[in-house]
Structure of tRNA-splicing ligase RtcB:
Amino acid sequence: MDINRLTRLSEFAWRIEPVDGMRVPVIIYADEILLGEMDEKVREQAVNVTMLPGIVGACYAMPDAHWGYGFPIGGVAAFAPEQGGVVSAGGVGFDISCGVRTLHTGLKREQIDPLKKTLADALYATVPVGVGSRGHIRLDHAQMEEMLRGGAEWAVRQGYGRSEDLERIEERGRMAGAEPEAVSVHAKERQRPEMGTLGSGNHYLEIQEVGEIYDAAIAASFGLASGDVMVTIHCGSRGLGHQIGTDYLKRMQAAAVQHGIVLPDRELACAPIDSPVGRDYLGAMCAAINCALANRQIITHLTRRVFAEILPDARLDLLYDVSHNTCKVEEHLVHGRKRQVYVHRKGATRAFGPGHPDLPKAFRESGQPVLIGGSMGTASYILAGTASGETLSFASACHGAGRAMSRHQAVRTWGGREVVDELAARGIIVRSPSWRGVAEEAPGAYKDVHDVVIAADRAGLARLVAQVTPMACIKG
DNA sequence: ATGTCC
């Protein structure tokens, strides 16, 4: 990105003034190097978003931002319904409520190391992974409706997990406002065989070791110490969320025309929050959030079953579960006044700071855990929400490394077998049904996640707490 | 991300 087109606010913040149809500014959080590597498309897309009706504050880009469908991935934008604010399917993303949850095994590296291969094989055999992977659960119509309304709370009721898990999930495991009737029959049919499956692309299940600690007090309050072994699950709402995205994109294109909304880009299709299509989408999207929460809950249950057989002492207590593709109604300060706004976070993690009333007691002092997944074979990071994030980004932070190279380019550059061998030489076991998938996800195809989280920390979006490094990765 | 093109 051309740095000369931006006004520098600080070492880690850049601004584009609102001109030519922009209703609010764009603010990008990144250091000069990350900004230099960022695609011009991020600037163009963020500028386009500021032209949508009812946008408030600014359109924000996180340090891991890259080119997405309509909205940049790593983008945050909030809209006010009383100002004709809109909701956009492209502003949430196709993998609705894709997210990350991290579990504490309660074990140290030395206890896991001799059984790493056994665990990787057993997890790979138990958790369905890959394109079109199918699970063992088949929900009938009534169960599907209950799942879409109940989320992880429903999953726990079905025996997939523990009631104490729910405290450690955004929305306490159940997103209010879900309307299963706003979800097409086709979307539900696609989801029927896919409950409890990991999917493909950047989704994974990883065994990780806590490495460096950056904030000792918060790490201790999260129960993290160097050498501890964690399990992280990264996946979303599978076919259901994707189909909802497809269904509503079409309806929103018509709705935008009908409501006279001028779209700078067709991909920004949207509908007023207070309109039939807008309300239906929000109901369907909340149902997809519940689907993703239930999905991660079932995979957690499968993971615990595997550990119970191999390492019966493993606790696998849930640290936290975050979603990074959502639109949520939240109260935020807009020009110094508290207002209810619809915050789109696409490839951006909610990062509520200390004292936020929606956080469970365990995180009232520290701020919520912000889980940042790296690429396969690189570190992941655990951060904590800050008070400053509220005014900087509607309490949002980055979500991952962000691609530096297209999938196509990655496949031309590496072979899957080569990537697996290289990682094995570094002690990282990879199990995947797809060599191509592994090549697409080669660590070199991603930006350096370390630079991304440093930028997020220095910009004040979230506070660095701990680094975790991979031991074994089950890859879709 | 995705029954990687209805």
About this structure: Residues 69, 93-96, 98, 131-132, 190, 194, 199-203, 236-239, 241-243, 245-246, 325, 407 of chain A lie near DNA strand B (CB under 10 Å from a C1'). Chain A has a mean pLDDT of 97. The first helix of chain A runs from residue 32 to 37.
